[in-house]
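Consortium newsletter contribution from the modelling node. Members have asked for a concrete example of what our holo predictions look like. Here is one, prepared for the zinc ion complex that several groups have been discussing at recent meetings.
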Amino acid sequence: MSSPVAGKTTLIRGRLLSFITEPESPDDRASYYYEEDGGLLIRDGMIEAVGDFAQVSLGIGEGAEVIDHRPHLIMPGFIDAHAHMPQMQVIASYGAELLDWLNNYTFPAETEFSDAEHARRIAGHFLDTLIAHGTTTVAAYCSVHRVSAEALFEAAMLREMRIVAGKVMMDRNAPDGLRDTPQSSYDDSRALIERWHGRGRLSYAITPRFAITSTPEQMEMAGALASEFPELHIQTHLSENHAEIDLTNELYPDCGDYFGVYERYSLAGPKSLFGHSIHLSEREADAMSNSGSVAVFCPTSNLFLGSGLFDYQRYRKRPKPLRIAAATDVGGGTNYSMLRTMDEGYKVIALNGEKLNPLAAFWQITLGNAKALSFERQIGALQEGHEADLVVLDARATPAMSIRAERIETLAEELFLLQTLGDDRAIAESYVAGKAMKGKAVQA
Ligand code: GUN
Ligand code: ZN
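And here is the predicted structure:
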């Protein structure tokens, strides 16, 4: 199968599935668009037409390439709302809860990202691994080093990927070689914003790691950046682990509670992504929803680090629902796959006595995450004028999936099988800006 050439028209054929609204049940037929024999016309990385294959193929010019993915399912590429690029070599680190895991494994690994060569090597692997797992957009943390963010933006630019990323700001409670200062974190973030934000498909996120590793002076600087660049995303961690919450309250005794720290420094709002948000008080949940802030559900990480059970339905069913995103949180998270993430997510929600229906799970990792990142006009749906980021899903990718698939009758059942047994083997192809990219080597 060859990749489309820039400027050329490509017609992709397969079963199309794209969500319109958040599905309320497995039978919520009005929540999605589905085309059994669908066609997607792609030109210059954009979706030019969507519909029935026969209709879309009418009038396409000579020389248009047709790529037939039948009987696979074609959806918008998956979106991962929180992952750490410098933690590829931290996944599978044994036996610690959050603060020890950071000190013993994560901080030593991140220290090496002062080396531009190392940063470039891992950044390329990071994006290629995400693409191989069907993820075409990520909101990513880099290390404290400016070169690590340079490396990730360069790698994303080469792959024409839409990403959000930022250099972590951290000036205390971290080892030598992994701390900046309030001023240097401001200067480096600003230089990165000026160089990368808005270039191609790239967005910068102001990234104070979490309250524990920033002094109040640094939080002021993060707030200053946020008021100078109000369109930017902000990403940080919130209320993940009890020891973390206690230490935060000790370090910021005047802020009332953990979310209050971020409010104090003007870091809450509709572009703010709060990783974990597990142990929120009612006041914090209210304040988050009133500010439009996003709570990021990271089930594989929350289970792996023993952090707790994110109460998805409690947050969703509040009088004013919280905005929710889903994410891997690699390398606290244990898999790059959003299918594996939602499988674990389903189990976490079940432990809270609730259910997440399969349509809602796939809405979450496509249109739901696009909305949480305020990217719903660009990605997250198969729609004319949207960017052509796609995932092609094979529900019979393994012998075990194939046997189970024999008894499947509905789309919701097929999705639930993909989520429960699927991983990167179920990704038949990933398209980034209209180009087939799974397993493709990208030259720097
Ligand atoms: N809190 C602060 N930094 C991190 C991190 O790298 N991973 C997780 N899971 N939580 C954090
Ligand atoms: Zn994280």
